[in-house]
Amino acid sequence: MKVSIIGLGWLGKPLALYLIDKGFDVVGSVTSEDKCAQLKGEGLDCCVMKMAPHPEGKDFNQLFDTDILIINIPPKRRTQADSFHPEQVKYLKALIKQGNVKAVIYTSATSVYPELNREVSEEELLTKETTSNPALLDAEQILWKDKCYDLTVVRFGGLLGMERIPGKYFSNKENVAGDPPVNYIHQTDAVRLIDFIIEKGMWNETFNGVSPLHPSKKDVYEKNFQDLGIAPPKSYNELPSKLWKQVSSAKIQSKGFKFVYNDPLFFEYSPL
Prior knowledge:
The protein is of the alpha/beta class. The protein has a single domain, classed as 3-Layer(aba) Sandwich (Rossmann fold), CATH 3.40.50.720. 28% of the residues lie in helices and 20% in strands. It has 7 helices and 12 strands. Helix 1 packs across helix 5 and helix 3 runs parallel beside helix 4. The longest helix is centred in the middle third of the chain and has 15 residues. The radius of gyration is 19 Å and the shape is globular. It starts with a strand and ends in an 18-residue tail after the last helix. The mean pLDDT is 97.
């Protein structure tokens, strides 16, 4: 089976290696010639494609002659308007329709859910007015509309593991919100979850990719200090957080998926 991965980055590269090890024919894309040459040197088949938001590069049409296309590019909301990522997806959808793509997996995020101070699931009704991430929700809806391919959307929680240690981002900071529950997933489980969807042929669905347990942010930061010596926040906000959510992964678990890392307190990381 042929799989194309748009975005051989922090998640895309280990996913490609995992699928290759299972016997898939995998090709992916990066945004620079140097990165492409590096990955080719490591034995990965890749091409250069930059979505600006229209596609730029060379030899990227091969990505769209595939059984499964995985769209794995972040929306970059800090540097681009909310309209930028949906425009990227519109161009990708046009290439999908021109090509020979049978199925698409789109990696979205749990940031599409608003902070409702309760548990949320895939059943939540989201609109442009209620979502916390209009760029991602718009992109999802573009892919769902008038599609000629199978589609599954995976809304990942915070992608952690390896060098991505949550405590690093709040070390020595003051008035940090410590009481909200975390919605994290380890890189290993994110890779395995996408493979699980492919293996089981679970198409035309939306799944949350989040570890089943949700310790508080404070507990996670203090555990990172205990295990890795990362200085915790200097202080936590004494007032209870007004805005939070806890994202359920019950749906993907009901399909038989089992997490390696159920509890973010026990995620494994690369040595510092």
